[in-house]
Amino acid sequence: MARINGVESQKASLFIRIAYWFTKRKVGRVIEPVKVTAHHPRLLRAMASMEMGQEAAHAVDGALKALVQIQVARMIGCPF
Description:
Blueprint: H1 14-27, H2 32-37, H3 41-56, H4 62-76
């Protein structure tokens, strides 16, 4: 659980609502890190750009990327 409450969609700007929609579409729900990062929209935009860049990289096979993400999440105790 985060020490900072996230931005709820009722109080969010249009950009943040769009980011929430994309997160729901990809993950199935709006995860807490996105809600907390929404307090600083420029940081949220930068994180989204980084995520999209990592997904667009084709140097490594997609299945291997997924396995590495799962392994790293397991190592640090992250449920995602």
